[in-house]
Structures
1.
Amino acid sequence: MSKKNIALFALLLVLGVIYIFYFTNLFRKTTMEIVYQISPKMGRGKGAIENAVIFSINGKFKLTSVKVVEDSDLKTNKYPHALWHLVSSSNSLPTKAVIYGIPVRGMQSEIPKMKPEKLQKNIPYVLLLEADEIKGQTKFQIR
């Protein structure tokens, strides 16, 4: 190979690396950011939910675990009691939002037939989300 061909190959290689680094997510660690909102009443009639807690995620994630625990329990216990815990047995659908107590499509309760516990006012809780190796959490409370 001539010097001209080697220089051209090196230039293409450098441009390829720059393209991969800046225009793909190959080397970026994806983060999960969660924002919550409390709706005083969601729905109508008998199926209405009081103080619905809606969690929005900064992208679509195939969740593998959704868990809500008390903040004080999480700080003091290695395995805190889950008030609500969903797991994915195979493939959950990509989702951008989770509503407390409503199952995410493709997920089921870790303990069969277990219902989510009622959230109390003025008690800090933590939502823990997992999507394979990506994890996110947020603290919230109902006032």
Note: The longest helix spans residues 3-23.
2.
Amino acid sequence: MTPLIRPLRSEDKVVWRELYDGYLHFYETILSDELIELAWERLIDPEYDSYGLIAEVDGELLGITHYSFQTSTWAAKNYCYLEDLFVSPKARGKGLGRSLIDAVIAIARGEGSNRVYWNTDSTNATARKLYDTYTEESGKVQYRIELN
């Protein structure tokens, strides 16, 4: 299985939505249709700092990742935040997640980013097996204040 990792295109919307819905379901999260539409519009807007990649194998779209760049007081250029990563259950264990992460890393290097980082639930053992092959977890504890 050799995936083609490419930027999202407008014609990917239906399959992207299915994959994104799978991602949200995995994290037991419900977003409004309006918010999901806004996410899509941002991902395909070249002027907005939110980007999406899709993994394609033999014409079938099987995985997605979203990322953005963030300035930092600790770096001369920026950091790259890999926000979402999801591979269709039927294609897991075949290297698509790694291919998507590697593509984001390559893009971040090309942008001169100082680091790529992401979060996952501490209980997400399957994903952490992959993530642990890249680096040790950071030891950071995330705090959130919901403002809406």
Note: The chain has a mean pLDDT of 94.
3.
Amino acid sequence: MTSQDGAEPPFSWRTRVYWEDTDAGGVVYHASYLRFFERARTEWLRARGIDQLRLREDSGVLFVVRDMRIAFRRAARLDDLLDVGARVAAWRAASMAFAQHIVRADDGVLIAEADVRVACVDAARFVPTAIPEALLPGIPAP
């Protein structure tokens, strides 16, 4: 499904900050943001009807993070409710670039932003391979 301008509509996944996500002061530990971003991309796939285990079993492919840039804007804290966004910014035959963000749900304050490039790889050989067609409907052509 695409928006009227041809872009994929934004996807958002809501999560709460738990003790396990924080440091001793109750502030989200920097590595936890990677998990939040990863989970949002997984839920983006799930919202498209794609289960990653089934994708590996049926298509023989996996997605691996190729590179990531994160900008931390504000601190998230214990019990904050967060909305984690994921949008395909660009794609090529064997990779996708995601623009992601985390905002605090109650006030919309931007917490962090990330640019993430994932590569589609053959699950058996870990070499780049084409993204399955089932993932591409609704994503504007590169």
Note: Confidence is low (pLDDT under 50) at residues 1-6.
